[in-house]
Amino acid sequence: MKKTRILFISTHNAIRSQIAEGYLRFRYGDRFESYSAGTQPLPIHPMTIEVMNELGIDISGQQSKEIFIFLDKNIDIAVLLSDKASYACPTFPGATNTIHQEFFNISYHEERKSSFKKEILLLRGEIITWIDENITAGGLFYYI
């Protein structure tokens, strides 16, 4: 059976899309190929790796990527995770379907390190819940 190819797109491909890529691969890798990219990629934030490790999900091998490298990859569903990504790329030309699902943007500042971790944990939970709810029968991904 052919796996459905999902590309998660955010602005920096440093937190949100990396969480989504790693979780989808870990939990549903038997049915989906999971990728992520950014419209303005930055290195993956170390705390992203840390909070995923807390769940037993190792994303340390994932890398931040630009969206253009996926143009010829026959993506089934592109999921835009931020309003900036949706503005920069309202539909992904290399995807059969595009879904807009915005998650809040967090940025790291050294002086608020402890609150940043709380925010990223909340974000992780929201992304995981959204994936779990939409991966099942009747969800957004089911029709593929």
UniProtKB/TrEMBL annotation:
Residues 4-133 form the Phosphotyrosine protein phosphatase I domain. InterPro entries: Ptyr_pPase, Ptyr_pPase_sf. The keyword Nuclease does not apply. CDD domains: LMWP_ArsC (cd16345). This is Low molecular weight phosphatase family protein. Keywords: Arsenical resistance. The keyword Zinc does not apply. It comes from the Archaea. PANTHER family: ARSENATE REDUCTASE. Gene3D superfamilies: 3.40.50.2300. SMART domains: LMWPc. One of its GO terms (biological process) is response to arsenic-containing substance.
